[in-house]
Amino acid sequence: MYLYDAPLAPALKALQEGQHSLSLYVERMCRRLEQINPVIQAFLPEEGRLARLRQDVSSLRDRFPDPHARPPLYGALVGVKDIIHVDGFVTRAGSQLPPELFAGPEATCVRQLREAGALIMGKTVTTEFAYFEPGPTRNPHNLDHTPGGSSSGSAAAVAAGLCTLALGTQTIGSVIRPAAYCGVVGFKPSLGRIATEGIIYFSRTVDHVGLFTQDVAGMALAAAVLCEGWQPVQPEALPVLGVPDGPYLAQAEPAALEAFEEQLLWLQVGGYEVRRVAALDDIQELNRLHRRLIFAEFAQEHAPFWEQYVDLYRPQTLEAIRTGLTVGPDELAAAWAHCLELRQELANLMAQAGIDLWACPAATGPAPAGLHATGDPNMNLPWTHAGMPAVTVPAGRTETGLPLGLQLVAPFGDDERLLAWAGPIAQRLAIMDG
């Protein structure tokens, strides 16, 4: 009941070619949202949503009456994480703080989506300031389980078919992890490929804007609009996959590792070569270093007002600020330098081992039970720290029906080949779902 097929690419094709009425399509999607969202709570409430969208549809049709001249995202219904500014919406960032503290012009990425023909379905729920304090969103696969975070509403909305595309952000694992938990495609591009102007920052150094869709083909269409300098590619050969063996991989739960080995076997039977590479031996120190970096920058963002509104912050958010205040300028400078050092180290390992993509679990396991927490992001942390592009694709299910994801990571700047390779890998792994 709470899951619904809504892949982006075929929806766009039908709308662009006039096979589907844009008005009827939007009306149908709004009715579904009205029925499902009170349970899933992926979107923030909005009075007059349908009336607003009717006006937006009329304006869009007036702009592009010729089906042959319609832009690439014509009719895409987009959910926008509520730390990203959208004209006409208040940005609250999942917080009780006065929203005027964070008001600003519409985000560049939202403007780009509008110019490409997308329609804003609404704001999606985020954890407080895109950290760990969860909102009310539930996982459409099992309402008693978290959808992940911090882009909780965006992942759940796409999984439930309440929109065809959603924007999220990732500072540790806030796109890849919830995408895996909710059984959808999540893409975190190379650092800086999608503009971050117009978001409420957690860490200006490592914040990434990322995307959610149900299909890799749709993800590639959206990435082509949002990623600077996008140049589609068609790789001739299958990628060689590298498994980062060692302490990093050992962070995953035993059952998740067992499922990961099964995923690799399916790929090997399908002709993919897998090579084991010792990597990330210092993962515990890296986990600590990354958090110290982002907490320091988070504290800087909130320095002008956090003491005045201290009683309005939730406990984990407040703890992050206070930890960040203990990071000195020398430590922070060393952490900045380490981001580039790790990026180069991983690139060297890939070149030496002759691998094209890293393959690893997208999370330490399936979505945990309960809504009090959003799960462990450590399987995503190194790739975010290094600013490397990552995508998760659905990769089977647990015995209880919870989805699992396979995370694929490419060298910095190689986003186009990453998504080109992810499509066939996703098709191969879809066999695991029967």
TrEMBL record:
<dbReference type="InterPro" id="IPR023631">
    <property type="entry name" value="Amidase_dom"/>
</dbReference>
<protein>
    <submittedName>
        <fullName>Amidase</fullName>
    </submittedName>
</protein>
<feature type="domain" description="Amidase">
    <location>
        <begin position="26"/>
        <end position="419"/>
    </location>
</feature>
<dbReference type="InterPro" id="IPR036928">
    <property type="entry name" value="AS_sf"/>
</dbReference>
<dbReference type="GO" id="GO:0003824">
    <property type="term" value="F:catalytic activity"/>
</dbReference>
<dbReference type="Pfam" id="PF01425">
    <property type="entry name" value="Amidase"/>
</dbReference>
<dbReference type="InterPro" id="IPR000120">
    <property type="entry name" value="Amidase"/>
</dbReference>
